[in-house]
Amino acid sequence: MMDPNNGAANSNRNTGSSLPGNLSLSDPAVLLATWFGSGLIRKAPGTWGSLAALPCAWLVVRDFGTWGLTAAIVLVFLCGWWAASRIEAKTGTSDPQYIVIDEVAGQGLALLFVPLDLYLYLVGFLLFRFFDILKPWPLHAMETRLKGGLGVMADDLAAGAYTALLLYIFYILKQMVIDVFKGIA
Predict the structure, then answer these.
(1) In a domain, 1, yes or no
(2) 10-35: pLDDT as tens digits
(3) 3-class secondary structure per residue, 63-115
(4) Domain for residue 130, yes or no?
């Protein structure tokens, strides 16, 4: 298919992929960095990556508990650092949008201190996206000062930490309200 902007062949347009031509999902770094392709969804790839992290976190907590999720976050962080570094080296592009493994690690951290609860996971998802998009201090500084795969991963872990703190406070307050209403009834 010809690209109407420059007349060159564009193989990515046929697949709907936003990957540069020198990258392929058959490369383990690309597969992990895009979180098995969720980062290739053109509209809001970070949101899709965060959304894809939710069932993964749920299943890990259900089957392996909080320690399992902690181990998964560390593993995803290390794999993400490696994969993002490799992709940046191949493309010369810093933190491309299709890299969403950072959202997966950050979203996992955001949910680390709350029980399995659909409502809490929804609030955690919304808070995490808020912090990841807004990038309050020091998230923006981390994103701009840290280079390579570490920089890609660090700001999302910080957004996850902000979210984890607020989500845990929200959870405690929710439990207090529930206890008050149980006492009234």
Answers:
(1) no
(2) 333 333 347 888 999 999 999 999 99
(3) HHHHHHHHHHHHHHHHHHHHHHHHHHHHHCCCCCCCCCHHHHHHHHHHCCCCC
(4) yes
